[in-house]
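Good day; I would like, with your permission, to put a structural problem before you. What I wish to show you is a protein chain and, alongside it, a tokenised description of its three-dimensional fold. Here, with my thanks, is the record as I have it:
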Amino acid sequence: MGVKRILLAVAAFALAQPAVAREDVNVNGWLISEVTGKACKATSYFRNRETGNPSHVYISYSAVGKFATVGFSNSKATSLKSGDKVSLRILMQPLSISENWIGREFHVGVIESGARYFWSEKLPVSTVENFARATAIGFLTGQEKVSAFSLDGSAAAVRELRKCAFEVAGLDHLNVDDPFLK
């Protein structure tokens, strides 16, 4: 009876321990990181040529939820406050890979520097592969540019992003043909 109690106590202790977070990885200037325990994010940081302010663009991917989100920062959008929502058009170059992303809702937040950051509603998983193939991404209000970013290195970053998302979800990232993960 004592051995069973010890084994149960050890098992309970092991289950109570928090999962070890995945280490961040840098791939071609993109930081790949776990964001929620079920999704990962690839972020590229830039210094704005006009303002000198830091900015970033990212894509997150949930292999379990089967969705992606994209986001970016902008230091000039000071008329917006945290909690606002805006409708933006997402445009990727070359145009042949842009989907019909007109009027996508983006949430607004404010970071310490005062810059605004934007993150999209859930987007289809195809966004991840399109992001990998694109050379640039732009965010527009109608025809007015809000922000635009180079996606240099995004193909390699997306490979690691997919691997990360599958790992944190406990899925086999090598089985890219699994029809239930598309």
Observations:
- Residues 91 and 99 are 8 Å apart (CA to CA).
- Helices lie at 2-16, 126-133, 154-169.
- The two ends are 49 Å apart (CA to CA).
- The first strand starts at residue 25 and ends at 27.
